[in-house]
Amino acid sequence: MDYSSVDLHNIDQKHYLPTFKRYPLAFKKGLGSRIWDVEGNEYIDVLAGIAVNNVGHCHPKVAEAISKQAHELMHISNFYVSEPQMLLAQKLAHLSGLERVFFGNSGAEAAEGAIKIARKYASKNGRGPKIIAMKNAFHGRTLATVAATGKKAMMNGFDPIPEGFIHAPFNDFEAVKNLITDEIGGIMLEPIQGEGGINPADQEYLEQLRAFCDEQNLVLVFDEVQTGIGRTGKMFAHEHYGVKPDVMTLAKGLGGGVPVGAVLASEKVGSAIDWGDHGTTFGGNPLVCAASLAVLGVIESENLLQEATEKGAWLMSELHDAKEDFPEITEVRGKGLMIGVELTLDAKAVVGTMLEHKVLANATAGHVVRLVPPLNIPMEDLKTTLEVLLKSIKANR
Ligand SMILES: Cc1ncc(COP(=O)(O)O)c(C=O)c1O
Predict the structure, then answer these.
(1) What is the CATH number of domain 60-301?
(2) What is the pLDDT of residues 218-233, one digit of tens each?
(3) Fewest CB within a 10 Å sphere: which of 44, 74, 181, 220?
(4) Whole-angstrom distance, CA of residue 120 vs CA of residue 270
(5) Ligand 1 centroid vs 104 CA: distance in angstroms?
(6) pTM of the full predicted structure?
(7) Ligand 1 pocket, 106 CB below 6 A?
């Protein structure tokens, strides 16, 4: 479509709910790690739709699968099964070892599903409904997931916020232990906090949480909405730790750009859900599931777990080396292609300068530049990204 005569930002200001502070940019086309604005300017995209376009923009295999499915069958209700949904359920169960799957449309919905499953299991097993979540977490913007996230700034004016979440400092097992009462039914966390500033969990911490949940019959929920689907160099981030959750959420990278989320549960915990306990109209329709199957196929056929591991290791090592000449870099954190560069500077200003050099990145948690490129980003683009990041740090000294 040709939008060249349309003032998109004027429409945005007039008609879109003023929830996002937008850049003065409108995009029209993407391919791989590149994206073009309506004026035809080309950018390298290391934000990837906030860790969504794991196989790159408009991957031809994903586009083809969507197109084929769109001509065959896009939507039925969940009163019936479809081939794409069943094959995707089977594939995810296989990959994760979590036997039960439910599809929704977003990360927040997946997290809502996880909360419901955990509470239902707890209610059937003599424990209370409260969930311990972590400080600095992010689980979404619905009322329950805002409560799970626990940030006051996201709650202002939205009372009553659902009850039942208690927050412990991240990576502090003793703090979790001290909060345990019979009222607690589960523990929910991101194996690597994304929005909170790319904070990986410690190995011992996850092991202790797993052992404790087993001992107390608590549900351990990993929110892998951002870390899942190859982002960290493994299909799921918890594989780095060898610690398996009872319930796991997925979204973002799962659809390669189409809105799909999933909550997975072990047979033991998932079987607490009864007929009629949960539902969705759109969730897991044939169109999005066909896209997801194509995404998972591309990750396998293009060896993207290895690509993410190798490229991420290269970038992290370059960034570590750069610390010598750039004292503004205080820490480099992450796994695979989920990297946070902590600065003494305002990360937003640095990201603004990167944009002037035609690289799309993102600032999170105030001082952290977040790099979450497509897993198949060419080395050449990654090298340019590094150059531009360092140049932008210098410019903001
Ligand atoms: C770990 C995590 N959980 C949940 C969400 C919410 O996902 P969505 O924006 O698709 O609702 C996000 C989004 O950034 C996330 O990073």
Answers:
(1) 3.40.640.10
(2) 999 999 999 999 999 9
(3) 181
(4) 9
(5) 13
(6) 0.98
(7) yes
